[in-house]
Amino acid sequence: MSTAIVIFGASGDLAARKLIPALYANFRKQRLPEQTRIIGFSTSAFSDEQYRENMLRAVRTQTGDDFDEGVWAGFADMLHYRSGNLESPDDFAALAAELGTGDRAADDIVYYLAIAPHFFTAALGNLGAAGMLDQSAGTGTRRIIIEKPFGRDLASARALNAALLGVASEDQIYRIDHYLGKETVQNILMLRFGNAIFEPLWNRNYIDHVQITVAETVGVEHRARYYDSAGALRDMFQNHLVQLLTLVAMEAPSKVEATALRNEKAKVLEAVQMTAPEHASLNTVRGQYRGYRAEPGVAPDSSTETYAALRLFVDNWRWQGVPFFLRSGKMLPDKTSEIIIQFRRPPTQIFDTQAGVTELFTNRLRITIQPDEGLHLRFITKVPDRGMTTQPVDMDFRYRDTFGGKAIPEAYERLLLDALRGDASLFARSDEIELAWRVIDDIRAGWEGEHAPPLEEYEPGSWGPAGAERLLGRSGRWWLHESADPAPAPPQ
Ligand code: BG6
Prior knowledge:
Elements: E1 3-8, H1 13-28, E2 36-42, H2 48-63, H3 69-78, E3 79-83, H4 89-100, E4 108-113, H5 120-129, E5 142-146, H6 154-167, E6 173-175, H7 183-194, E7 207-215, H8 224-230, H9 232-249, H10 258-271, H11 280-283, E8 284-289, E9 307-313, E10 323-329, E11 336-343, E12 364-370, E13 374-382, E14 390-398, H12 399-403, H13 411-421, H14 430-448, E15 455-458, H15 466-473
Parallel strand pairs: 1-2, 1-4, 2-3, 4-5, 5-6, 7-10, 8-15
Antiparallel strand pairs: 7-11, 8-9, 9-10, 11-12, 12-13, 13-14
The chain binds 6-O-phosphono-beta-D-glucopyranose.
């Protein structure tokens, strides 16, 4: 059997930074199917040799000291390049002929759309017209991997789903969300459903609230053209944060398989309570870092949010009344993604708490997605030789301590392999995408109405606008990043 991977947008940033390095890493681990051909396709005029040179530089940059010349030589032989235009049916026909004829004919083909969204429809139309997704001959599989942004609202996501489903069936479509390929994100399922001790507590009876933070230190960088018309809500929440929410909130699937998993995730999204427009400023916060409007390519009067914080409720038996606080922003003090499950306090507190340590601090599970991937379970302990003084301590598991520094692969490695093998468990289904947009559109509608929260400016390097603290403060809670914890009592 032979396999072809066609990357549309092959001279772009994603191919160089993520896709080719991930394929190289898989080749190195001998995980690519034998007889794989990788064909880069984009408008730039490169020869195979020139493309290999460019990708060599990219892989060297990504792998650093770990680069292996011998492995590269074998990998480079697989790498080819075809120059073409996404809007040209002739160029697709030529590519189809190359993929389907002679001794180079491929049995299984994966097409990766790493292209700007305004080309999606043209590329899909041309793939369809050239019969490149047709599996009726039964000789092999044809799959499409599609990158975000998957629409910019529910209507455009529906149109894109319709365009996809017009040329391929759902089981041929792999909508990528790279957060789902992160080891620690997959570990949420393992933690919840591979252990017996967490699940009995994983509900409204024991959990006070959940916090999901995805913080970045970078600003808009060179992506203003896209970002200024998207904003944090579309760029980070509709996909990454909402996916994290579904994994924390979902019921146990009957098995770890695409349909079962995605059914459970969709049910969570269906249960997310819509925010009434008049409550927009009670449940949502939006911010923009100071200096954003002066960034190259950003409109001088831009009202795009670079930070958002939300309070969401999942209206079902398990979660009714438990707030989920989600926040994400650019130019924050740390690059960190984490989920905090804050358990309820004991029914009564019979011990004196250390000054400044409130009862809320008793039990908490911190799931660190990145960096310093791990799990930290907090509980109260007795300070030795100090009467009955209490102190919170953490029981820690760190991936790097247990599995070594290089154990965690890039998300794209796993996701590309899964698509090659036909496992869609870690990809979003059309209904999930649309349900997620329903939530986001609802919030955006609130932001356009008379009860919209103000667009608050925040200092680069701070934890975001003051409104975000108020979002939790109103109910006596606060954001639980490490620096917000009171210092442990000094030994006496
Ligand atoms: C992307 C967003 O999907 O995720 C970027 O478009 C963001 O704006 C990135 O920087 C964050 O990904 P990670 O894996 O670095 O947390």
